[in-house]
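Technical annex, item 7. During the second reporting period the consortium partners agreed on a shared format for inverse folding records so that results from different sites could be compared directly. Each record opens with the tokenized structure and is followed by the designed sequence. A conforming record, contributed by the partner at site C, is shown below for reference.
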């Protein structure tokens, strides 16, 4: 009987994990709403933003000499709550206490997960929110840099209002290497990278 109970419990834990994976999949369809304000009709998804934030975070972690695993984990799970409450642009944040909602959603999302996973994610989220460790600062800088890279891409594609994001976001960058990347980003042409990869016939 005890063996059967353990088997059922295992299946329940597996179902909760699969449910969590399915919920995370919603982020592939949820759009980053701040870009609508800039007149961009079909902006990137939250999942797309999280992926490139993780890539940037991994790179920055090595430049800053911190744990890349922790930075990537923070980057990937930072916006997981938006699967339930969507992305809200800064105008909305002014009127709604979105931070407390994020924390409540995250607590509910991980409540039924394997205890080891739950504990690790809770510790990671708490560390990121407090913004005192070097890893949390790097992860936050990666998040900001991804927004700036995206803004530059939209600007280079002709969305002039995207340049407004250059005014305030860079002020929040904390690490030396993130600030250096931003200094170069302002003059960088986002459309040129692929031209060095594709070999045009003469």
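Designed sequence (site C submission):
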């Amino acid at each position: 009987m005890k063996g059967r109970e353990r088997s059922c419990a295992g299946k329940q834990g597996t179902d909760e994990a699969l449910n969590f994976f399915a919920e995370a999949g919603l982020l592939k369809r949820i759009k980053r709403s701040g870009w609508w304000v800039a007149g961009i009709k079909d902006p990137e998804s939250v999942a797309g933003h999280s992926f490139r934030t993780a890539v940037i975070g991994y790179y920055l972690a090595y430049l800053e000499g911190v744990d890349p695993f922790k930075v990537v984990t923070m980057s990937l799970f930072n916006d997981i709550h938006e699967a339930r409450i969507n992305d809200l642009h800064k105008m909305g944040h002014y009127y709604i206490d979105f931070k407390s909602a994020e924390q409540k959603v995250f607590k509910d999302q991980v409540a039924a997960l394997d205890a080891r996973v739950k504990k690790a994610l809770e510790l990671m989220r708490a560390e990121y929110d407090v913004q005192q460790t070097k890893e949390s600062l790097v992860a936050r800088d990666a998040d900001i840099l991804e927004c700036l890279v995206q803004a530059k891409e939209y600007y280079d594609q002709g969305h002039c209002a995207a340049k407004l994001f250059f005014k305030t976001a860079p002020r929040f960058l904390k690490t030396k290497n993130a600030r250096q990347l931003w200094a170069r980003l302002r003059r960088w042409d986002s459309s040129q990278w692929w031209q060095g990869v594709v070999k045009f016939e003469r």
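The mean pLDDT is 92. The chain has one domain: 2-192. All partners now use this format for quarterly exchanges.
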